[in-house]
């Protein structure tokens, strides 16, 4: 099969299709995922091809979606549910934290919870309130959940299949701003890296920038800009937020001595705080400067006309790199 | 007529006057005095053996409850959720199940667990603090106790949707057709999850019976705090039938639940059974009902005891002899012994056990925490100081 150039939306759609072809226990459920194909069209055409029993339009109740998915998993199915927007996951929070995350532990391993909860996350699309949030730390803080974030079309294709095939619950974060943004070439015959691994996406020697989801693109742009100023930035796409894959991070920071973390989520108690703590503990004697964090301010997501002044961007990440070098 | 704005008839015109004692729609087959009455829609021709069996089940269930309560008083259990007074509701519902039917319980369904063949000793682990549910839910089709109120009704609905997809609903094969029963209480009826479960079940016509034991009290809150209309009448608003049964009448509960389950198995969708009963004990062993309810009320309900009325019926109709009661008494004693001795012998989990089973396979992160903690614990070996003791 010849390689094709695809968007993230297409990669996810193809990945879901492949997972459903490979295992007839895979079910999709969510609001508007059927005939409409989802508000972002990620499930486009799947109900037509797999039927209403496998691609299920749900009532508008997120706790109901996740709670019934628990029951389906108990019956031996592998439900993949779509939460329409990040800010709408909270009605399901109790089911996710108290049931999805704890069932395997409660049953001492007798019951598995192979549920994937897909959440389009992050901002930058000019949306109204509750449509641009980054709730990943709330889930990464919860034992029993795995949390991953894809950043590009090829990862979207592979990671969604790997998450569905995984026997534990996975919160699957999709950077909605990237859905239809860039195209990449997909080689369906390639062997993907394991799901819970981080990856160096640009090698460098002067400082390490950690990113995931939508900020990977920002970090790569930073590295390009920094290069023109004579600085070599190494960029790591974390991909997995829980568990974290720290080995490539430690290896990088021990070489560079500097580390900047960027995410769209609030800085206070965000993923950057955990990453900074771990890097400091493991790379203390290699660090030339404290680990710096660039994220959203600790304010609610603002009206969209000023969201670009809220989200971390190229200049703010580069500013943090400058501050790191100023120590 | 003076009010120009009308939203329609009064509640009382639609639902009838508010009822405090079951009301005229209550399905009953055995009165509190032990009189067998008949119902035009829900009835069953009980054999003497069936009747003795139901009596035995209720007596043994009460024994489980009494023993566990005593074990808590002796410090062997941290807490116990008593079912005293709800034996008929649980045995009636539990005995209406077929092996292929699946139960989603609260934390009080000890009688249903017993009907499903779960060793009652396994129920104690959670309350002793040695596990959080010691049975395999798929071994007896009896789910784990769920402590978050009402959460399990959604799991039940999802499970029932799975049954639909497995083609085990409405085939006409009695050994194949299956249903789910979701247990919850009057307090849970206020939860969003329960109402969402009703909506999902109705929308997909899922084979699930919502079985509500209305025991009149949610800890200290009376049923009037949860609802202005009889609970069973809510079902209609969700688009499926609701029925109120005397939950202290094991015969009626059995007949009604059996019909509701059969309806679900045949593919006719969900239904709601409100078992009208009474929590004669406390909410749990840490509760003190004397702070919020009158003793008169308890005395009133004691006259409706679910076990006594069947005993009267069995005796009056010569269906039992003294040997039956003696044998049952011996069996109950043996069960009590099993629970007492078994409870004390339940092994405590080991400190490192807490790291297991967070996931299907331990992650490197958790394994590292486990190993670090193991090394920390090992550092005290041979020392007079123990972990946590700095003196």
Proportion of residues in helical segments of chain B: 40-55%
Categorize the overall geometry of chain B: globular
Rg of chain A, rounded, reads: 19 Å
| Radius of gyration of chain B, whole Å | 23 Å
Domain Dehydrogenase E1 component (chain B): 56-334
Cofactor (chain B): thiamine diphosphate
Pfam family, one (chain B): E1_dh
Region (Disordered) (chain B): 1-23
Describe this protein with a few key phrases.
heterodimer, A: 327 residues, alpha/beta, Rossmann fold, B: 391 residues, 2 domains, two-stranded antiparallel sheet, 14 helices, 7 strands, 8% strand
Describe the fold and architecture.
Chain A has about 325 residues and is α/β, with parallel strands linked by helices. Chain A contains 11 helices and 14 strands. In chain A, helix 1 (about 10-20) packs parallel to helix 7 (about 155-165), helix 3 packs parallel to helix 4 and helix 8 packs across helix 11 (about 315-325). The radius of gyration of chain A is 19 Å and the shape is globular. The termini of chain A are far apart. The mean pLDDT of chain A is about 95. Chain B is built from 14 helices and 7 strands. In chain B, the strands form 2 sheets. Chain B has a 5-stranded parallel β-sheet with strand order 1-2-3-7-6, with helices on both faces. In chain B, strand 2 (about 180-185), helix 8 and strand 3 form a beta-alpha-beta unit. In chain B, helix 3 (about 85-95) packs parallel to helix 10 (about 250-265). The radius of gyration of chain B is 23 Å and the shape is globular. The interface of A and B includes residues 98, 107 and 243 of A.
